[in-house]
């Protein structure tokens, strides 16, 4: 079967074995997003996992239901048809998946919001590098700040296009994401997320001007109060230069704390 748009099937059996073995999955409920033809699904099942596979393509769902009929009957595999960005996902412990490149950011944010013990996820290499980009570097952005606030990220594996069918135009990285509590107190997580989004939407502006550009998100009164309470040297900088602690400080001031 040919791959749907934006889906690149992992066909490198060595890589599959490595990915399936990066975390202990025996006896655990493992979420797999985009199982495709089921090569990673099979490796996870062989290691004793109960797999919840979310697949958007109806033809692939049908193919998986035929190929894994016994595992479905035994209750070891549940196939959830639909879009992983919005479909209801049954409870799970761990995530192991080759995420579609075009929706990597949305899926990562959704998974962090749902919560999990650990995730082994494959991304476009450039995307994964942005996830771990430190403040003050050209790659830092909303993704970097939000992921690093709520998780630690460790690169595990670098894969070439030859590991996939059809071959993508880019290299891929497999990373381990482990959720953690934020390193600094955050009074309101939604306000924090809004601050990060607004500031990086105006990343060429100073923090002062960026906050004032967020009048559709924050009330003018809360913006001016926060600006009055924040250090002037912070307000003169740009978002890529801020540390996580400083994003938390801004958000807490906007939240009235």
Notes on the structure:
The protein is of the alpha/beta class and 257 residues long. It has twelve helices and nine strands. It folds into two domains: 9-179, 3-Layer(aba) Sandwich (Rossmann fold); 189-254, Helicase, Ruva Protein, domain 3 (Orthogonal Bundle), CATH 1.10.8. The strands form two sheets. It has a seven-stranded mixed β-sheet. Strands 1-8 form a two-stranded antiparallel sheet. The longest helix has 13 residues, at 189-201. The model has no long low-confidence stretch (mean pLDDT 95). S-adenosyl-L-methionine binds at residues 8, 10, 34, 55, 83, 98.
Concise description?
This protein is α/β, with parallel strands linked by helices and 257 residues long.
SSE blueprint:
Blueprint: E1 9-10, H1 13-21, E2 29-33, H2 39-46, E3 50-55, H3 58-67, H4 69-73, E4 77-81, E5 94-98, H5 104-114, E6 118-124, H6 125-131, H7 142-150, E7 151-159, E8 164-165, E9 172-179, H8 189-201, H9 207-212, H10 220-229, H11 232-235, H12 244-254
Parallel strand pairs: 2-3, 2-5, 3-4, 5-6
Antiparallel strand pairs: 1-8, 6-9, 7-9
Helix pairs in contact: 1-2, 5-7, 8-12
Question: Which features would summarize this protein structure in a list?
Answer:
12 helices; Rossmann fold; single chain; transferase; 257 residues; S-adenosyl-L-methionine; two-stranded antiparallel ribbon; alpha/beta
């Amino acid at each position: 079967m040919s791959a749907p748009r934006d889906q690149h099937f992992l066909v490198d059996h060595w890589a599959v074995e490595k990915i399936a073995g990066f975390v202990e999955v025996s006896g655990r409920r493992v979420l797999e997003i985009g199982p495709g033809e089921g090569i990673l699904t099979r490796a996870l099942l062989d290691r004793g996992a109960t797999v919840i596979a979310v697949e958007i393509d109806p033809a692939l769902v049908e193919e998986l239901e035929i190929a894994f009929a016994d595992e479905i009957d035994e209750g070891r595999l549940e196939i959830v048809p639909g879009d992983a960005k919005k479909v209801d996902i049954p409870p799970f412990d761990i995530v192991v998946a080759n995420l579609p490149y075009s929706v990597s950011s949305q899926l990562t944010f959704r998974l962090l919001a749902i919560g999990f013990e650990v995730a082994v996820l494959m991304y476009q290499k450039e995307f994964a590098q942005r996830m771990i980009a430190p403040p003050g570097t050209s790659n830092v952005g909303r993704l970097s700040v939000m992921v690093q606030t709520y998780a630690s990220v460790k690169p595990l594996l670098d894969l070439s296009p030859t590991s996939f069918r059809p071959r993508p135009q880019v290299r891929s990285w497999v990373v381990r994401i482990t959720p953690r509590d934020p390193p600094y107190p955050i009074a309101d997580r939604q306000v924090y997320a809004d601050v990060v989004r607004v500031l990086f939407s105006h990343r060429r502006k100073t923090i002062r001007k960026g906050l004032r550009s967020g009048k559709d998100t924050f009330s003018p009164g809360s913006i001016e109060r926060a600006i009055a309470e924040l250090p002037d040297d912070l307000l003169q900088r740009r978002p890529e230069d801020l540390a996580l602690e400083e994003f938390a400080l801004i958000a807490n001031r906007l939240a009235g704390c």
